[in-house]
Amino acid sequence: IPIASNDRLSGVLGDRLQTFSNLQGDGSVNARRSTYSALLSDAITNYLGEGLGGKRLDSNLLAMLFNLGSVMTVVYLFSLALMILPIFYTEYTNLDPFFKVIQAVIAASLVRIPVNSSLVSFSGFIFWYFLGLGLAGIKYWNAIKHSRIYENANH
What we know:
This protein is mostly helical. It is 68% helix and 0% strand.
């Protein structure tokens, strides 16, 4: 690699690449771990939260705990699960192939929740947009199912 052959950068790059195999020696991981452990104890005991204009953290779960409080974070996550689960357990996935796209986008956003703010800003827009499309699609197919068109098509 040409950039690694540079004398000034090779030492720094080599040291940084070695930390991928030795996480105990990685200073940034250790600093993040100690910061998160200190913040987590404060966040869990904060029952009411600081409001939506509160702390901006790179961890979505910690930000939710600080902004909403521990009680409302549980309510928020439970409500989020109630909206998401019907999209993954719908019977209409075979009728509408776009449900697979919706499920993939939502799953990708959910995987990112613990490590970054995937429910706010542009990535949050994408998540909420596809969640709304999925819920609207279920409502649409339920209306079709209970209409005469669906009954006539299946007989």
